[in-house]
Amino acid sequence: DTAVSQTPKYLVTQMGNDKSIKCEQNLGHDTMYWYKQDSKKFLKIMFSYNNKELIINETVPNRFSPKSPDKAHLNLHINSLELGDSAVYFCASSSRGLNTEAFFGQGTRLTVV
Amino acid sequence: DQQVKQNSPSLSVQEGRISILNCDYTNSMFDYFLWYKKYPAEGPTFLISISSIKDKNEDGRFTVFLNKSAKHLSLHIVPSQPGDSAVYFCAASPYTGNQFYFGTGTSLTVIP
User: How many CA atoms lie within 13 A of B62 on its CB side?
Assistant: First the structure.
């Protein structure tokens, strides 16, 4: 049973479209994250949610909007997709508190054409 | 501004020898450090961690060393095995918790 699952695994779409990536965790964690891995392979944090509340919003364009309907889900909606949005997006979760590790989903490879 | 840096994008090691992966950080608020392993088309998986109150943590073939004064940590794998071939990410978390900042990864190839 997958701990952190993302759908879809691959997403190809045209510029200007709006798309969503879904993430679910069954670990009972309070905190969920979205990371972006670009062509330079840098894993950059985008958002962090703690019990459905936004904690971190790094310098991400406001075309990216996370939605957390409950603490087990954190979806990422992207409006007006641009070529530069092409990347692998990873969802992750961790338990609350110090000295914990994050568990990652398998990633969603987004290609904007 | 990258707060966690892995300056070696790749490393090749013979099977059975030691692999040493390095990581540097800049933020003094970081006090928990992690190493992740990533295979292609998969998400990163947790490997080993170390708290800032320690300078060494060992788990089987994997040992992480932390030098706080130099803001440097390293991962030693000994003996290296072909199955260890993967990308290794260093990550750091501040004392406030619940944030993880990653480096750019080092691609390790273990040659049989």
Answer: 14
